[in-house]
Amino acid sequence: MRKLPSALAFLAFLALALSWSLGTPLLSAADEPEVVTKAAASVRGEFSGKETVVTSPSWESKYATPDFIEVTYQLPHSLVEAIAKLDPQCYSFQEAVTATCTASANSANARQAGTSATSHMDYFPLYYLLVGWPSLFIGGSHAIYAMRMVSAVITALLLSAAFTTSIRRRGAAALGMLAAATPAAIYYGAVVNPSGLEISSAILAWASFLSLVRAEPGASGMRRDRILFGISAALLIVTRPLGPLWLAIIVAVVLATTSGGVRERIRRVLRGPGVRPVVAVLALALLAAGVWDLTQNTMGIIPHTNPQYTYSKGIYISLAQTPGYFAEMLGAIGWNDVPVPTFTNLFWYGVIAAFVLLALVLGSRRERLVLLALTALVPLLPLAFEAYAAASYGTGWQGRYTLPLAVGVPILSAEILVRRLCGTAWGPVPKALASILGGTIALAYLCQVWWAWRRYAQGIFGGGLGHTVPVHAHWTPPIGWPAVLALALFGCATLPLVLWRSSDATAAAVAEVALGAGTDACTAAATGLATVLAASGVAEEGDEHRGTATHPMLAAAYWPLTDRITPTGRDPAHGVGRITTEVRAVATSVDRRGVSLR
User: Fold this and answer.
1) Residues ≥6 apart with Cβ < 8 Å to 293
2) Helical (H) or strand (E) element with 52
C-alpha cells in the first residue's frame, strides 16, 4: 500500500510525458535536431569533430546570436536520412502549416543524405549518453522515438520522486509541485532536449531539500531525502552551465525560510547518515562541470562585442520579451511557436498567484521576504543577463532557461501555505485544496495539450477548425490520436486522485508527532495552538469567541479546534485533554484508512 502512490505517480507522469513524445512530430522541439545528432555521436565516442564557423551578417542590427560553431559528426546513414527527412523548417513558426509538409519539402535533402550531420551543442555529455544509447541498436526515425521515450522515463522518475516526497512530508503541499510541472516542463522532458532534465532535476531538488530541512531530527525518510537531493543536485549541476547557480539559489532560499540560526540550519542538513557520500558526489559533479565548461565552448557561440548594443537597449528588449518568457515557461512549446491558450494562462497562473498570495498572508515575516525576493528574481534574472551578456552573445534567452528557478515559487509558497494552514486546520482543508486546485491544474494542462495537438495536426489558423479532437487530421502520430489522448487523460486524472487520497498525510503526521512525543509534548502543542493561529492571522490571540475571526473563510476549520482547546467557561487544562484525545482519534482513523507516512 505504501508503494502504490509512488507507482501511480510514476505511471501518471510517464503517461503525460509519452503523450508528448508520441503526440508531437519528431524534431519539432527547439534544438532537437542538433541534440539528437550530439547524443548519437556521444554514445559512439565522438565528443569532437570537424568545426565550421557559421557567420550571421545581420546579427548586430537584429541583436541576434553572433557567429557560432557547427561540429560535423559521423553517424549511421539511416539516422542522418531521418534527420534530413524530418527537418521542421517547413512548418516551424507557421502555425497554419502542419507537419505533413516535410514529405515534399525535405525529399531532395533526404535523397542526398550521407553519413554526417552537424550540431553546435556541446554541453556536459551526461545527458547525451543517457538518451543516445538506443541509436546504437535502432536506426532511422525509430531511434529518435526511442530517445524520446528514454527521456520520458527519466523525467517521470524525477517528477514522481518529487511528487511523492512532497506528499510524504506534508500532503497537500504537493499541489505546488504539480503547479511547477507545467506543460512546457513535461514537454521538454519528453523530447530530446537537455532542458527537460535540468527542469525535472530542479523540481526534485526543491522538493527533496525542502523535505530534508523541514523534517524534525530523526524523522523517517531523511536518508531517502538526502539521496534524492544528491542525485537531483548532481544532475542539475552537470546538465547545463547555469546548474550550479540554480542549486545555490535553491539551498539559500530554503535555508533562509527555515527557523533557527544559520549554523543550526546548516547543521540540520549535514547531520545524519548518508551525508558524506552526497557531499562527495556533489563535489565531483561541480569539479567535472567546472572543468568541462572552462575547457569547452558549451554554447558553441563565438562572442563578439556589438557596438550598437547598450545596457538600456538590453533592458528594453528583455522587458518587451518578458510576457513571452512567461508563456514559454508555461506551454509555448516547439520552437516557441505554439501559443498558450487563454484558459491555460489564466487558470494555471491563477493557481500559482493564489498560492503566493495566501503564503504571503499566512507566512512569517522571513518567509514573506524570501518568497517575494524569489518571485521578483524570476523576471529580473533574464533582464540582467540580456542587459550585460547579450552585447557579446546575442539576445537568445528563452523561458525554459528560467524554469529551474521559477518552479521554486509554487513549490515554496504551497509548502508555506499548507504548513501554516493545514498544520492547524487538518480535516477538510487539504482535500479541498487537492480537489479544487488539483482539478484546475489538470483542466488547464489538458487545454494546452489539445491546443498543441491542434497546431501540429490541423494548423491553428488554417483549415479544419471544426474538429474539436484531431482524430481526422492532416498529421497523425504513430499510435493514433485516441491513444495519445488516453495517455494525457490518464495522467491528468491520476495525479489529482493520488493527491486527494494522500491529503490526510498532514493529519497523520501531526498525530504521529503528538503520539510519539508523549502527553507533555501534545499538551504543549495544544496549548500553543491558539497563539500559532493568531500569528498566522486566523484569529486574534486570546480571543475565544467566534465573532473575532479576522479570516471568516477559515473560521469553520479554526473554531472547532479552539473549542476543543479552551471550551467557553472551562479550564484550559480540560480543553488540552480534549485536544489530546482528538489527536489520538485522528491517528487511529488515519491508520485504519491505510494512509502511508513514509
Assistant:
1) 124, 241
2) strand 50-54
Helix (H/G/I), strand (E/B), else coil: 425: coil
Q: In whole angstroms, what is the distance from residue 573 CA to residue 446 CA?
A: 52
DSSP 547-591: GGBS-HHHHHHHHHHHHHHS-TTS-HHHHHHHHHHHHHHHHHHHH
Distance separating alpha carbons of residues 588 and 512, to the nearest angstrom: 10
Sign of CA dihedral 82, 85, 87, 91: negative
What is the distance between the alpha carbons of residues 274 and 532, in angstroms, rounded to a whole number?
Answer: 34
Tens-place pLDDT, residues 424-453:
444 566 667 777 888 889 999 998 888 888
Question: Which backbone phi and psi does 470 adopt, to 5 degrees?
Answer: -75, 60
Residue with cell 503525460: 16
Residue holding cell 511528487? 163
pLDDT in tens, 50-98: 888 887 777 666 677 777 788 899 999 999 999 999 999 999 888 888 8
pLDDT in tens, 90-114: 998 888 888 889 988 998 888 888 8
* Cell (9 digits) for 161: 520522486
Whole-angstrom Cα distance, residue 371 to residue 368? Answer: 5
Neighbour-count burial for 239-273, b at 16+ CB within 10 Å, e otherwise: bbbbbbebbebbbebbbbbbeeeeeebeebbeebe
Cα 319 to Cα 129: distance, rounded to the nearest angstrom: 37
| CA–CA–CA angle 152, 154, 155 (5° rounding) | 65
